[in-house]
Amino acid sequence: METGFSEMRSELQSRDALWRRIQMECQQLHTELLKIREYKDMQENQIKHQSSCVQLTEQLENKNAELLLLAQSQEHHREELNTIRNHVYREEQSHRSEQERMKTEISDLTEELHQKEITIATIMEKASLLERQLKMELEIKDKLLAKQQLLDFLYKVIKAENIHLKEMV
């Protein structure tokens, strides 16, 4: 895309240089036209030769025709230059909007990642807390089981003793 912009810029620069040359030529032609007019006026005042007047008039008409052609060419080049400038402007705007869209998307993804990291950290904390609670409950149940087994054992001992005492009585 950058090469496209570069090509368009160099195209614009070459057209701009051409435009400046045409303007210089127009100025030179205008200067020549003024000189021709001055020369024509001097000739008309000094010499009344019709042939030289006709010749100068033809030259003037030729120069006028050249000027008209150059002006038309200049206008055509100006239109092309404007078209290229507009195209470059639209491409740059499109490129900028694409960059903005990508920046927004990256920002959104970064925010989403941050939220997921927070969620993972919260889940890890809860899992750690639940693990500690389970260990504590397991220890309590182990102690209760040991007490229960001791009580069962004592119950059996007392029962056996009772049976033995009943037999003795």
Morphology call: rod-shaped
List the domain count as a whole number: 1
Helicity range = over 70%
Query: Major β-sheet, in short?
Result: none
* Overall number of strands: 0
Which runs of at least 5 residues are low in confidence (pLDDT < 50)?
none
Mean pLDDT rating: 85
Radius of gyration: 52 Å
- Taking the alpha carbons of the first and last residues, their distance comes to 111 Å
Number of H/I helices: 2
Label the structural class.
mainly alpha
Order of helices and strands: HH
Q: Strand share of the residues? A: under 5%
Question: Can you characterise this structure?
Answer:
The protein is mostly helical and 169 residues long. It has one domain (3-131). 97% of the residues lie in helices and 0% in strands. The protein is rod-shaped, with a radius of gyration of 52 Å.
Summary, kept brief:
Keywords: Coiled coil, Cytoplasm. This protein has 169 residues and is mainly α.
